[in-house]
Amino acid sequence: MPKQKNNATTSLKVPRFLLLTGRLLSVISSSLATRFAARLFTTPIRHALPKREMHMDLQSSQTRLLIPKLRKHINLYQYGEGEKKILLVHGWSGRGTQLVKIADALLSLGYSTISFDAPAHGKSAGKTTLMPEFIESILEIDMMYGPFEAAVGHSLGGMSLLNAMRKGLHLKKLVTIGSGDIIKDIMDDFIRALQLTPEISDRMRRYFEQREGETMESYSSYIAAGKIDIPVLVIHDNDDKDVPVKCAIHIHKHLKKGMLKITKGLGHRKILGDREVINDIAEFVQN
Q1: Which pairing describes strands 112-117 and 72-79: parallel, antiparallel, or unpaired?
Q2: What is the C-alpha to C-alpha distance for residues 132 and 143, in angstroms, rounded to an integer?
Q3: d(C-alpha 58, C-alpha 74), whole Å
Q4: Closest by alpha carbon to 135, among 100, 178, 183, 169?
Q5: Which key words tag this protein in UniProt (predicted)?
Q6: Out of 63, 131, 194, 247, which residue is the most buried by the measure of CB atoms under 10 Å away?
Q7: 132 preceded by a cis bond (ω within 30 of 0)
Q8: How far is it, in rounded angstroms, from Cα 278 to Cα 276?
């Protein structure tokens, strides 16, 4: 399978002191530089709750849910009273209320939503996490609160849902928004942003593979997409500077029942509040 380039966080801006630290450690020891990069790669940024999400936070029934395989608790949001449930999954450095505009539209159609703060995000405990922990959280929520009519995932959330289906999640429909694709490209771009050598990317990949017991490449979205039989709506903005639109095109090519919607001028996050995008999601879920 041909590889894509520039398939991930192309807009990542790294503070100068981190760049200097990385360079210094790479001179001292490749192992130290690898662990430094791995720590940064797995550490999300917690942002303050925006005003636009406050009503969802206040009106949701919130629960601390234990994920047994992780031995971690996450914060769960149950929003609305509809019997038919939709699972919402935020992206890296997001939170369970981030897809609020989509949630409100689904509630108006009679659905309820369940979302969560992934480990090390929002109100959930921890400082570091990785996609496998998103996936384990999704699978535990499905077991405790499913079945779900559909799921909507943004960025890493979309990648995690695709992989959760590979590991047993059952859905009728799936929507991904601004999701990444090939793991090697994501890691390569991250290491490039840190101004470290490609060797550190390879070492970091091996470090995670030893820790997780699986190849990192097996988590690439296009691989999971090829194993999914349900309808999937892939949404991406042509001007997304965080995750290039070629990711969506590549994922869509591997889906058996895929639909592709390319927007323009919305970027990586504004797309979550766009009225046309939200209407398309609502129509897709309903029909």
Answers
A1: antiparallel
A2: 17
A3: 17
A4: 169
A5: Hydrolase
A6: 247
A7: no
A8: 5
The predicted structure's pLDDT at residue 5: 41
Kind and range of the H or E element at 62? Answer: strand 61-67
Count other Cβ atoms within 10 Å, centred on residue 284: 19
Q: Which amino acid is at 98?
A: Q
Closest C-alpha to 122, from 201, 49, 35: 49
pLDDT value at position 12? 64
Residue that is written with structure tokens 């609160």 in the block: 145
The domains found in the chain, sorted by start residue, are 1-41+183-218 (no CATH), 57-182+220-286 (3.40.50.1820)
| Count of helices and strands (H, E) across the chain | 11, 8
The reported pLDDT for the residue numbered 142 is 98
Q: Rg of the Cα trace of the chain?
A: 18
Q: Which residues contact 20 (CB under 8 A, 6 or more apart)?
A: none
d(CA 117, CA 115): 7
Paired residues of 236 in beta bridges: 262
Distance in angstroms (rounded) separating the CA atoms of residues 162 and 179: 10
Residue 7 has a pLDDT of 40
Residue pair 94/155 in contact (Cβ under 8 Å)? The answer is: yes
Any idea what DSSP says for residue 79?
E
Token pair recorded at residue 233: 């709506």
Report residue 241 as tokens.
């500077």
Locate 160 and state its tokens: 């995690």
- C-alpha 168 chain-centroid distance: 18
Distance separating alpha carbons of residues 158 and 181, to the nearest angstrom: 10
Mean pLDDT by 10 residues, the chain (287 residues): 40 81 91 95 95 98 97 98 97 98 98 98 96 98 97 98 96 98 95 94 95 93 97 98 96 98 97 98 95
